[in-house]
Amino acid sequence: DPKIIQKPKYLVAVTGSEKILICEQYLGHNAMYWYRQSAKKPLEFMFSYSYQKLMDNQTASSRFQPQSSKKNHLDLQITALKPDDSATYFCASSQGLGVQNTLYFGAGTRLSVL
Amino acid sequence: QQNVQQSPESLIVPEGARTSLNCTFSDSASQYFWWYRQHSGKAPKALMSIFSNGEKEEGRFTIHLNKASLHFSLHIRDSQPSDSALYLCAVTPRGSALGRLHFGAGTQLIVIP
Regarding beta strands B107-112 and B10-14, do their DSSP bridges make them parallel or antiparallel, or are they unpaired? Predict the structure, then answer.
């Protein structure tokens, strides 16, 4: 059974619309993250959260807003979608807060913006 | 900004071969060094990590780090068709808050039976 659940698996959106990507982890981890993988760039860090608090933000655009209602839940809201936002968005989690902690990734949400 | 480069971009080897994948980084103060493997359409999954110069072996996989050369590598002994995947190296940069890894673009490995 997958321990990090991402929904939906595939998502098609029109330019200018808004979408929410869902992520829940059942590994009992204390930290959660969003990464993005597009055809043009390597896997890219976006946000990190711990105990529902934002720890790091490397996303320049305010159109990307993480939302955490519970410690094991981290959604990603994307507004005013653009074709360049097309990518696979991966949620990840780790047990602890130190740099030596392994990141575990979900299966991803593949977003296509038309 | 950390620059992580992988070589080669792609590699085709016969089953049973020894495979070597390379990764260079730009900041010698980087803290941790990782290899992830991503099968097509799947999540990246951590293979191994190292933080100090030298070698570390786990089964058929060996990771080697040389910080002075800004280089680390992954060696796969007795490569299997199931090893066919995209291999991603990643670096934890200096002073990084938790979870921020800088990834390379990947090496696509194909192991021919």
Answer: parallel
Contact predicate A36/A88, CB 8 Å: yes
Of A42, A44, A50, the CB nearest to B98: A50
Q: Angle at the Cα of A37 (from B74 to B27), degrees rounded to 5? A: 50
Strands A109-113 and A10-13: parallel
Nearest CA in chain B to A107: B43
CB contact, 8 Å: B44 with chain A?
Answer: yes
Tens-place pLDDT, residues A98-111 = 888 899 999 999 99
Is residue B82 classed as helix, strand or coil in its secondary structure? helix
Which of B43, B49, B100 faces A90 most closely, judged by CB atoms?
B43
**3-state SS, residue A47:** strand
Cβ atoms within 10 Å of B38's Cβ, excluding its own: 20
Half-sphere exposure of B28 (CA within 13 A, CB side): 6
Quick one: A100 exposed, middle or buried, by C-beta within 10 A (0-12, 13-18, 19+)?
A: exposed
**What is the per-residue pLDDT across A42-89, written as a single tens digit (0 to 9) for each?**
999 999 998 888 888 888 789 999 999 888 999 999 999 999 999 999
Rama region for A17: left / alpha / beta (φ>0; ψ in -120 to 50; rest): beta
- The tokens for A20 are 């929410």
State the DSSP code for B83.
G
Distance, CA of B63 to CA of B55 (rounded, Å): 6
Is residue B6 predicted with pLDDT exceeding 80? yes
Is the separation of the CB atoms in A83 and A14 below 8 Å? no
